[in-house]
Specification:
Layout (H helix, E strand, L loop, with lengths): L11 E2 L9 E2 L7 E2 L2 E2 H5 L1 E4 H6 L20 H18 L3 E5 H4 L6 H22 L2 E6 L18 H20 L4 E5 L4 E2 L7 H22 L4 E5 L8 E2 L4 H10 L6 E6 H6 L4 H11 L2 E6 L17 H13 L8 E3 L10 H28 L1 H9 L1 H4 L8 H10 L11 H10 L2
Parallel strand pairs: 1-2, 5-6, 5-14, 6-7, 7-8, 8-10, 10-12, 12-13, 13-14
Antiparallel strand pairs: 3-4, 9-11
Helix pairs in contact: 3-5, 5-6, 6-7, 10-11, 11-12
The structure holds D-xylose and nickel (II) ion (2 copies).
Length: 430
């Protein structure tokens, strides 16, 4: 045991009336909702990078957090792992997610970085066996080190493409070894700052080829999990290639990979793209590529990815409504891609941030389930499209339709969209 979280008890469900801050009010893991326990609906995961690797910096100042595991040695990487697994256990969050760079010190070269990663992966494997914690997804950090400043797969230098491909292979191996349920590719610096120095067509082909190699390797090693792309429209580059779900779908279609790759959709990225979270979720559902979510909260004014812990229950209800309509998670889950504000220095801040987020997600999901169970929203939607149930127009053609409109003297009368009525209905479940 480390002493970082000393005095902080394991969090359990005490119900809405409790005065105990270190308890769940909404998240009762074993509560049955729509036929299965809440914990299996939500599949909570903690993000290693924000909670254990991020030092609290912003563009105007550096580190604010003072963590005993900060530093570049294997010994400290293991202390970080010990502390991280203690947090997962305190929270009862069954999953975690990591990048290679979050968990191991950077080596002097590729071989040394890989050895460091493998040593930590063995350490994680033991900790997973001891605690029952599981890996939701692994990924590679192909954006922090300066070698990636002009991208990874889309880099003008083939040596960077090679370094990135090799790194992805080692991170997929790590994910498989730890029984990970997904492998995530977030675009990082796959985008550009200026067209003046960018060959967009070439970069796009490089990205498509890298993705094909990832899919080929998945099949070669028999990885049963999902390959997920995480769209984001901007930041760190001005124009990120994986702008949003629809853009990524076009890319997948172009390279014939739409049946191989699904989406990891993040609330904050949806907002940056000018969408709502539920829009992105619904788009993925309709295109058959819904996979997992990065749950956080973005600032609606700032224009960058603030990665705050989620706390807006009405919004989360609408998001989980789309998740449930997609059939819920299979390999995916709810990953808290969220970080503390840089003044939140204490160990207990880290715990309480997650407790509040887990409670808000549980409240959102239960509200969404009530909305679905009750069926009024879906009934209203069905009623709006009822005319199509008996129509064969879509199998017709323009000339026949013209004849049909003339001979039946069709003269459509507009109907109310009932938006406010439906908004009132949604509020009635909260
Ligand atoms: C950054 C992304 C990142 C991915 C994993 O904005 O959200 O954290 O989830 O690389
Ligand atoms: Ni993310
Ligand atoms: Ni993000």
């Amino acid at each position: 045991m480390t002493d970082f979280f000393k005095d902080i008890p394991a969090i359990s469900y005490e119900g809405p009336e409790t005065q105990n801050e270190f308890a769940f009010r909404q998240y009762n893991p074993d509560e049955i909702v729509m036929g299965k326990p809440l914990k299996d609906h939500l599949r909570f995961a903690c993000a290693y990078w924000h909670s254990f690797a991020w030092p609290g910096g912003d563009p105007f100042g550096g580190q604010t957090f003072d963590r005993p595991w900060f530093g570049d040695t294997m010994e400290l990487a293991k202390l970080k792992a010990d502390t991280a697994f203690e947090m997962f256990q305190i929270l009862g969050a069954p999953y975690y997610c990591f990048h290679d760079a979050d968990v191991r010190p950077e080596g002097a070269n590729f071989a040394e970085s890989t050895r460091n990663l493998e040593e930590i992966v063995d350490y994680f494997a033991k900790k997973q066996a001891d605690t029952g914690m599981k890996l939701l997804w692994g990924t590679a950090n192909l954006f922090s080190h300066r070698r990636f400043m002009a991208g990874a797969a889309t880099n003008p230098d083939p040596d960077v493409f090679a370094y990135s491909a090799a790194t992805i292979k080692t991170c997929m191996d790590a994910t498989v070894k730890l029984g990970g349920e997904n492998y995530v590719l977030w675009g990082g610096r796959e985008g550009y700052e200026t067209l003046l120095n960018t060959d967009m067509g070439r970069e796009r082909k490089q990205a498509g080829r890298m993705l094909q190699m990832v899919v080929d390797y998945k099949h070669k090693i028999g990885f049963k999990g999902a390959i997920l792309i995480e769209p984001k429209p901007q930041e760190p580059t001005k124009h990120q290639y994986d702008y949003d779900v629809a853009t990524v779908y076009g890319f997948l279609k172009d390279f014939g990979l739409e049946n191989e790759v699904k989406m990891n959709i993040e609330q904050g990225h949806a907002i940056l793209a000018g969408h709502s979270f539920e829009h992105e979720l619904a788009t993925a559902r309709e295109l058959g590529i819904f996979g997992s979510i990065d749950m956080n909260r973005n600032d609606y004014q700032s224009g960058w990815d603030t990665d705050q812990f989620p706390n807006n229950v009405p919004e989360m209800a609408l998001a989980y409504y789309e998740v449930l309509r997609a059939g819920g998670f299979t390999t995916g889950g709810t990953n808290f891609d969220a970080k503390l504000r840089r003044q939140s220095l204490d160990a207990e801040d880290l715990i309480l941030a997650h407790v509040g987020a887990m409670d808000a997600c549980a409240a959102g999901l239960k509200t969404a389930a009530a909305m679905l169970d009750d069926g009024k929203l879906e009934a209203a939607r069905d009623a709006r499209y009822a005319g199509w149930e008996t129509s064969d127009l879509l199998g017709s053609d323009l000339s026949s339709i013209e004849t049909h409109v003339r001979s039946n003297d069709i003269n459509p009368a507009p109907h109310s969209g009932k938006q406010e009525r439906l908004e009132n209905l949604v509020n009635s479940y909260l």
